[in-house]
Design a protein that fits this description.
Largest sheet: 13 strands, mixed
Number of strands: 24
Structural class: alpha+beta
Helix content: 40-55%
Distance between the termini: 72 Å
């Protein structure tokens, strides 16, 4: 026989009234049935819930006679509770609103966290799919950790590791391709094209609208479209078997549509528009045709393992393969590769420390932080309830006294107050769902995703959420219930009763706790704002605001002379406009990543002395257009402006440092060797400028001359008449590159987009913090108002004796301001520690200082003063005759 855990049986014995022991047998039978159907964990949760449902009867039921009258008594208590709520509309509204906002915030955070945790779980074999993570070591020092591998590694592993059922390689094509449907000849430029193995659609369960999973990628000239791309190119027609033409270098040609995928789930870390066969890339792309497998590490690898396989064992086998097949070449440069398998379900939230080209990831640290905020917000809401309930003890004293005199027992009084607590929390819960549903569009806008309230469809959510609400209701309701039911009847009915003073330390402690949490939340919000502002305001070494970037053409002849001739014609036309200062063609631009990274060393040195450097191809006008400052040397010579490859490069000062070139002046005319095989002469050294986000440290950069490689055309313009300038550039582009789509962006906008995740995090943090502070202020307002009403006679006497309104306001406010000061001091160490931990994620960051406590404390002071000022002013300015006339 299956039985619940002993702690749950103990709780049932304590909660269940002696007269209703039959319930225990019923609950045990239900547990055994549920454990067989659901498993012990879910059955135990449900048993715990069943146990809680009998708790009110513990206070309402004592014997069989009282059992028969429990329902009328419960109804009586509910009626009294409703009357109490209607009599004290302001305090009841504050209690319900505070709890509703707290629960609503928790619901929103729960939905957001649930969505983030759901990534990639829709794949039926998600628990068996892993991504290969590679750690690169050189001379025993870790150079980096990422998901990029060589393509041969997967082929060797599939043959050598018996635990691997299937392997999938993915290559993200990082340049735009021109694509059009020959039936209508409308060209588009697309940049979300993936090359994948033909096993991709059988390993991953992306919904397929049409086509065969097994054969959709079996031929080199097959193509699979996402649903939105099928509509874009074919409208309502069935695209299967139809042709798409691709232009843009070696992939150019006709492709047969063999599959259409349903719109990809939002909760997938893979987001693509087109799939092309991997066999096409490896057999026709020049860089891979005759490659030994070590030249390019730009493939991500996924493996499917049996349920019984040990990922750690497979890790070790990948290490052995690397040593066996690539060890000799790696040893020549003192390098070593080690591997780990990352579960598919962890990719979205546990890849923050990895070099991931897709960049479509979250951060588990943020999820944990928002979980803590949800707990804080709910604790603040319940703390308000406790505070107001105990503070209003004077108003409830005579009622409790009369009930005790006519025979009410303590357990019955506790039961009454618990019924009130459940009623208030129940009303707040209903309102909370409305708040959450109305706020969901705002949350969607903040996170940049379309979330639906899917948690309401989950039985697990209802069980967990109701358990939390019930436990919180009991914990927040029991203390006021015990306080109110413990008063002596004689003292409660006397005129000298001062119930408000009881529990004063507890109430002050609760306010102190709320101030403490509020300061931490404001401090965190201020820190995020200051760091993001610092990154956006930092001098990047480039005046990005004036640079307009146009995507290079994809429909043209990809031969050097023709490309150079076309670009020269476009350049001349554009420069004729009075607002255009300069134009440059480059392989990439700041904020879009580098063309590639590789080892570079000085000519004459061993390759194992090489340093990892980012490399980009630029034309002769690069330094002028980007307005870079030279430390030594000069821009590329005029006679090299028409050359495709001249064997010259400009480097940044970080490259001078990393390559050991002594100084910028000494670096001139030095020869350096790139791992791809090029030998370059350094003709100039520029100051460091930011090619990447300021989250990343300065990286050594080499900019090698190639006048015909223009994936992007960067145009420095005058900002006086932007629309007219763009129209002129578009006209010139259409004349020189007919049939190409004209797309552009401003460099500063694209660069700042790298901070989108930080901005979203900051907006979420700010929103939840404001709501938490709102809840705190609700409680403070109610408590001060109630305190002022109880001190009405004292205020009247002080006013008669000559106290001014200002003095009386200070008297009523000072105890809360003292609590604010104490809370600020208590928050200092935690705020500084938490801030420093968060800032460790940024290479360029602000320094923690006193402002991150002073500013939050000052803001909270203003909010608190505004919160209490109305009540204190109203009490201080009242006519003393009104409060003293009965004396």
């Amino acid at each position: 026989m299956k039985t619940p855990p002993k702690i749950l049986l103990w709780l049932l014995d304590r909660f269940c009234p002696p007269s209703r022991q039959d319930l225990k047998g019923d609950f045990l039978e239900l547990y055994e049935s549920r454990a067989s159907e659901w498993g012990r964990y879910r059955a135990s949760l449900r048993f715990f819930w069943d146990t809680l449902t009998v708790l009110p009867f513990r206070f309402l039921v004592k014997n069989n006679r009282s059992s028969r009258s429990s329902i009328p008594m419960f109804s009586h208590y509910a009626k009294i509770a409703f009357r109490g709520l209607s009599r004290s509309k302001v305090y009841s509204s504050i209690n319900i609103l505070g709890l509703a906002v707290g629960m609503g915030v928790c619901l929103l955070i729960y939905q957001y966290i649930s969505f983030e945790l759901s990534y990639d779980r829709f794949h039926s074999r998600s628990n068996r799919i892993y991504r290969l993570v590679e750690t690169d070591l050189k001379n025993g020092v870790e150079l980096g950790k990422g998901i990029s591998n060589v393509h041969e590694l997967a082929e060797v592993a599939k043959k050598s590791i018996p635990e691997i059922e299937e392997v999938v390689r993915i290559n993200l094509w990082r340049y735009e391709l021109g694509i059009f449907n020959p039936e209508n000849d409308i060209p588009y430029q697309e940049d979300n094209v993936w090359f994948v193995d033909d096993s991709f659609l059988t390993v991953f369960d992306f919904p397929l609208l049409s086509g065969s999973r097994e054969s959709a990628l079996s031929e080199k000239r097959n193509i699979v479209l996402a649903e939105q791309m099928a509509s874009k190119y074919f409208g309502e027609k069935d695209p299967i078997g139809k042709t798409l033409h691709i232009s843009g270098g070696w992939p150019g040609g006709d492709y047969i549509v063999t599959g259409v995928l349903q719109k990809l789930p939002v909760n997938s870390h893979m987001q693509f528009d087109f799939l092309l066969p991997m066999k096409l890339l490896l057999s026709e792309e020049p860089s891979y045709k005759n490659n030994d497998g070590l030249g390019w590490r730009n493939f991500s690898t996924y493996v499917l393992l049996p349920e019984t396989a040990s990922p750690n064992l497979v890790d070790d086998k990948f290490d052995l393969i690397a040593d066996q097949y690539f060890g000799k070449e790696l040893a020549a440069s003192n390098e070593k590769w080690t591997f780990d398998l990352q579960p598919l379900k962890e990719i979205h939230l546990y890849s923050d420390n990895l070099e991931d080209p897709s960049g479509n990831n979250g951060d588990i640290a943020n999820i944990k932080l928002f979980s803590v905020i949800a707990v804080f917000v709910m604790l603040m809401a319940w703390a308000n309830y406790i505070n107001l309930s105990t503070a209003r003890s004077l108003h409830r004293a005579k009622e409790v006294g009369v009930r005790k005199i006519i025979g009410a027992r303590k357990r019955q009084l506790i039961g009454q107050f618990l019924v009130e607590s459940f009623l208030i929390n129940g009303l707040a819960l209903i309102l909370a769902f409305g708040i959450a549903l109305l706020s969901l569009p705002v949350l969607n806008q903040m996170v940049g995703k379309t979330l639906a309230f899917t948690i309401m469809q989950s039985s697990g959510f209802w069980l967990q959420f109701v358990l939390v609400v019930v436990i919180g209701t009991l914990l927040s309701g029991l203390y006021p219930a015990f306080v109110l039911s413990s008063f002596k009847p004689v003292s409660m009915l006397g005129s000298s009763f001062r119930g408000f003073s009881q529990g004063l330390v507890v109430r002050k402690g609760i306010i102190l706790f709320q101030f403490f949490l509020s300061i931490l939340l404001i401090s965190g919000t201020w820190l995020v704002y200051r760091q993001v502002k610092y990154m956006r305001d930092q001098n990047l070494g480039i005046d990005m605001e004036k640079i307009l970037v146009v995507y290079g053409p994809r429909f043209q002849t990809f031969e050097f002379d023709a490309m150079l001739s076309n670009f020269s014609a476009f350049q001349q036309k554009v420069l004729q406009h009075h607002s255009v200062e300069s134009i440059s063609g480059t392989g990439s631009v700041p904020g879009k990543g580098n063309m590639w990274t590789g080892d570079v060393w000085r000519l004459g040195e061993l390759s194992d002395d090489g340093k990892l450097v980012s490399i980009d191809q630029v034309d002769g006008y690069f330094t002028k257009t980007f307005d870079l400052d030279f430390l030594a040397g000069e821009p590329f010579r005029e006679d090299l402006m028409k050359a495709s490859y001249a064997g010259v490069a400009i480097v940044n000062e970080e490259a001078v440092k990393q390559l050991g070139l002594a100084s910028p002046q000494n670096a001139l005319h030095q020869k350096i060797v790139v791992s791809a095989g090029d030998t370059l002469e350094v003709v100039g050294v520029v100051k460091n400028f930011h090619w990447h986000s300021l989250k990343e440290a300065q990286f050594p950069g080499i900019y090698m001359l190639n006048n015909a490689y223009g994936a992007y055309y960067s145009i420095r313009v005058n900002l006086s008449d932007i629309p007219q300038t763009i129209d002129y550039i578009k006209t010139a582009y259409d004349e020189v590159y007919p049939g190409n789509e004209f797309n552009y962006f401003f460099l500063d906008d694209a660069f700042n987009r790298q901070y989108q995740a930080d901005l979203q995090f900051g907006n979420l943090f700010t929103a939840f913090s404001v709501l938490a502070i709102f809840i705190s202020c609700l409680g403070l307002f109610a408590l001060v108002s109630f305190s002022a009403s109880l001190k009405a006679k004292e205020i009247g006497i002080r006013k008669v004796l000559g106290a001014s309104v200002g003095q009386l306001m200070a008297l009523l406010s000072k105890e809360y301001l003292v609590l604010l000061l104490i809370a600020s001091l208590l928050a200092v160490p935690l705020a500084i520690w938490g801030g420093q931990q968060w800032l460790e994620n940024y290479a360029f960051r602000i320094e923690m200082s006193a402002e991150f406590i002073v500013v939050p404390a000052f803001l909270l002071l203003i909010v608190s003063v505004l919160t209490v000022s109305h009540s204190t002013w109203k009490a201080a300015s009242a006519n003393p005759v009104d409060s003293l006339k009965a004396e």
